[in-house]
Amino acid sequence: MLNKLTFLFSLYLITYSCKEKQPITNQKEYFVLSQYLKEQDRLHNVKLKRAEDNKEILPPLKRDTTAVGSLNFLIKNNDSAYFYKKSLDVYFYMCGNGIEEEREFRKPILEEDLFMKISTVEITSIINLYKVPFSEYSTRRNNIPLVVFALMRDSINNDMMKNFTSILEANGMKSYRFRKVSNYEKKAVSLWNSLTSQQQKQLNSQRHNKLYQSN
Questions:
Q1: In the chain, how many domains are there?
Q2: pTM of the model
Q3: Max CA-CA distance within the chain?
Q4: How far, in Å, CA of 4 to CA of 65, rounded?
Q5: Hey, how many other C-beta atoms are within 10 angstroms of the C-beta on 177?
Q6: Could you report the per-residue pLDDT of 37-58, keeping only the tens digit for each?
Q7: Which pLDDT score is estimated for 16?
């Protein structure tokens, strides 16, 4: 009897293990940050190999883990996000030790940065709002201000992200980065969430008005 039970249990395990496992998510529907960064590594390694063959020297790949843009979107999920802005003079670094970048990053997210909660639908409006300022600044300084998408989770709707980048490209705002949300930004979100709903509503109203009136 025991041998029969053992046989049946073994048969069950074999049958179960041979079943096709269903993927947790459809990769075509999601932009997966970890996979994106892995692909950036792969492409950089291809460039390094070509550079070695041509006896060229490429700078080491530097993760934009601390890159702060002029426009920063902290994407919580497919519906909600947070936004804050910095000066158009914020620079990012592709090589070197990034000390200046670190200093810029560690500056507090202040009231004048207009930190606020937004819907992901508003991201398009904010991008379009800065089309002209970015273009004028780029013409004067020969430098395109950076736009950062910081994800609070590893995967997000792919069509939504493609839409954002398509709008950026169409507007000539071709300097943008994807990264994880930073610990400092998490702290800013936590402080925001510690406010009462009335305080959040009041600040959001004030900062939305200031954002659109200043452009």
A1: 1
A2: 0.74
A3: 86
A4: 57
A5: 17
A6: 888 888 877 877 777 777 666 5
A7: 36
User: Residues 9-34: what's their mean pLDDT?
Assistant: 54
Which residues are CB-contacts of 118 (< 8 A; sequence separation ≥ 6)? 80, 81, 82, 83, 126
Of 92, 74, 91, the C-alpha closest to 83 is: 74
Q: Which two tokens stand for residue 1?
A: 């009897």
**Residue 163 C-alpha from the chain's centroid:** 14
Q: Which domain does 179 fall in, by range?
A: 71-213
Is residue 165 assigned to a domain?
yes
pLDDT tens digits, one per residue of 86-137: 887 655 444 433 444 444 455 567 676 889 999 999 999 999 999 888 888 8
Number of Cβ within a 10 Å radius of residue 153: 13
Instruction: Please give the average per-residue pLDDT across 73-84, as a whole number.
Output: 96
Cα–Cα nearest to 86, from 102, 100, 105: 105
CA 182, CA 65: separation in Å to the nearest integer? 8
Which sign, positive or negative, has the C-alpha torsion 95, 127, 105, 213? positive
Judged on CB neighbours under 10 Å (0-12, 13-18, 19+), 150 is: buried
